[in-house]
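Quick entry between incubations.
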Amino acid sequence: MSTGLGTLLLADARLPVGGHTYSAGLEPALLDGLPVERIPAYIEARMRTVGLAEAAASVLAYRAVGGAFVPGRIEAGPEGLGVDADALADVHEALLARSPSAPLREISGLLGRGLVRLADRLWPEHPAVKALRTLGRAPQRPIALGVVAAVMGSEEAEVARVSLYDDAQTVASAALKLAPVDPVDAAGWVLGAEGVISSVVAEALAVEGIDDLPARTAPQIEGWSLEHQVKTRRIFVA
Amino acid sequence: MPEQTEGNATTGTRRAMRLGVAGPVGTGKSTLIATLCRELADELSMAVVTNDIYTDEDARLLRAAGVLPIERIHAVETGACPHTAIRDDVTPNLLAVEDLEAEFAPLDLVVVESGGDNLTATFSPALADAQIFCLDVAGGGDVARKGGPGIERADLLVVNKTDLAPHVGVDAEQMVTDAKASRGGLPVLALSQHDEVSIKALAGWVHQVLADYRSGTHVPRDPGPMAPHSHADGTTHTHEGGEDGHEHA
Ligand SMILES: Nc1nc2c(ncn2[C@@H]2O[C@H](COP(=O)(O)OP(=O)(O)OP(=O)(O)O)[C@@H](O)[C@H]2O)c(=O)[nH]1
Ligand SMILES: [Mg+2]
Ligand SMILES: [Zn+2]
Ligand SMILES: [Zn+2]
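Done. Structure below.
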């Protein structure tokens, strides 16, 4: 049985996987004139677009390594009960195909590497971690997230929720570094996203495979990511 | 006797030594690294990771100095948290180091420049095998006396820009004496770009640490937050590596 600790760890910015370098696109958005009052709307826009695609991909990755079948079973058999490395690779490819911005794919790969590093250190022999390693050194973050969540015994819905929560919280905490924001207000923004996050979690869980993996993107956010990549003055990598 | 840990014996001498350079803004970290590259790059295969806070100034300074091929200099963003990037979550820096090691194998030395931060920011041993803490005379003569983990316990304390001492009304020698007093025998180096002898001494120190690292006698120490303490037998020491095991006799 899962203690739920794993999910809490994944949702915690103190988990050492490099999250502090990322603003979930907020820095270029503010530089381009997004008003601070619109940050909650920015969070919602992310949830409904890239947030959904990533959460659904996390859930599919989680299922591909048997997460749904062996909750809490870090000791999954050496034969890799429920671990399907090919299915995991397919989900990874499908997500890449839905991520048109090269810099955003690159950053997602960096964050994914942080999770791989964690998994390699904590569960080097776990079949799900071995499957993750077949994706190369920098798998996209949502895929690594789904695998790590499976290994730590998270529930399926928690995987989707933590993916979305982390995105919203990344925006909110980056705002504190970028704009004159009261930290309590930023916490309020995240809580205010609860309704949209719940509905997106439901949508993500309803996805059955890569054929119906949503391909929703946010062209403005992608455009900003391209501009940000070539800036010489920036605080966050993206 | 320092407490010996398994450290280098297991990691072996294959991977490059990672040397951190920390210290407040503008004390001359990038310049010091450029100097090291100039002095050592002929004999050693080197790479550099910079942790710029806001600009890519550090990486640019080093690239412009022309002391290393530019592709051997990687810049890492720190999300306005230079202390986090060298201590609480070293992931982005480790990934950059690993990339450089993979790309330019075999490397002898990777230097990581911390984004200029306050006096308490030091490298985690998870990132740096050895570290230099850099002060300058322009920061005031009493800084060395005030202490802090980097000043007291970095592998090397540099008192930089000694050529400026007369101009800023600081007695550089006194500053070095004060620093030595707070370091329990750890080395202090008075450095200036205009003092060739001091530059050779800096290069010599790096050579020595690298040799110790390779032979497994260099033990990464954590200057960390833990204050040195005394025991009943009268010895004073710090606990490298963070955990207070207290196994020593
Ligand atoms: N006079 C004198 N100036 C020096 C010396 N070393 C560095 N400087 C100057 O000090 C200034 C800051 O040097 P940097 O090397 O950029 O300092 P830094 O610590 O890397 O700065 P940040 O990365 O911004 O924290 C530059 O103008 C250097 O030219 C020195 O030995 N003597
Ligand atoms: Mg610098
Ligand atoms: Zn910080
Ligand atoms: Zn002790």
